[in-house]
Amino acid sequence: MQIREKVLISELVTMRLGGEARYVIEVESAEEVPEAYAFAREKNLPVWVMGGGANTIGYDEGYDGVIILNKIKGVEVLDESDNSLVLKGMGGEVWDDFVKYACEKGYSGIEAMSAIPGTLGAAPVQNIGAYGQEVAQVIESVEAYDTKEGKFVTMRKPEMEMQYRRSRFNHGEDRGRFFITSVTVKLYKGEMQQPFYNSLQKYIDEHGETDFSPENIRRMVTEIRADKLPDPEKVASAGSFFKNITLSKDEADIAEEGGIPLHRNANGEGKVNSGWLIEECGLKGKTMQGIRVSDKAALVLINESAKSYADLAAARAEIVGAVAEKYGFVLEQEPVEIK
Questions:
Q1: Among the options 10, 240, 274, 294, which is catalytic?
Q2: In the predicted model, what is the mean pLDDT of the chain?
Q3: Catalytic one among 16, 165, 218, 225?
Q4: CA nearest 130: which of 232, 263, 230, 227?
């Protein structure tokens, strides 16, 4: 267990904003997790858990507490048959490495989530998703340290209360209660089913793709994301900054009649791409307070020269206001804030 003191949060998060954290602890095994929390209790300090820092925003004043970084590694096949694969990965594994492993073995369920930055342990917290797939569709269970009870627990999917970009882990009274040490998913042989999301279908049409195997979908998605989304290791960004807008069937009908493009699920409910709304407001490529709306994907905000959280907040307010004024939709920020 490595303990560091007075570490800049801007060096831990991909948006490159944030003052000093009092302590940062890296845990490399499940056994070290209770030790890290015990350290925080001894110092009478709060705890914030972080994976790769790709979906996290820091404040200028920093964090007067303990940030615990999940560095627990390992992947294990629990069960494999001709039709399915039960795969367990430790929380500190890089998400995209986990996806690659599953795709190379020929199993479907997470291939459309290729190239999403971050760690495996963070995936169910936010219920990450892309191009019609999300973690809630494949997750079986997680192993976690319950800080309230002071013990390790196994939690099944129904207990996680997973919805679009939310779960029991990041909402309600249990927010921050569990430190996820491992995630188990169940995947299946076969191909991703149509209809595909617009940008994926556009790529398929333009390139005449007919192979929808996990490995080929992964390749296509990775190419699409590489073209649209900056590499957070090279460009200061938190990835997709706003959640897409979810609509009931009736709301989706009204939006579609108004000329707003959306993706519908089997129940007729709709999802509006927030990037499209931002672009239609004329903000694509615009720079505000050192924050630039990406000229490739308007859903992405890039920190070109912003030095403070206030700069980001001002840019965010301008974008949210423009969309609300033109379309009546209120954009919700996706990255979480350390507090």
A1: 240
A2: 95
A3: 165
A4: 263
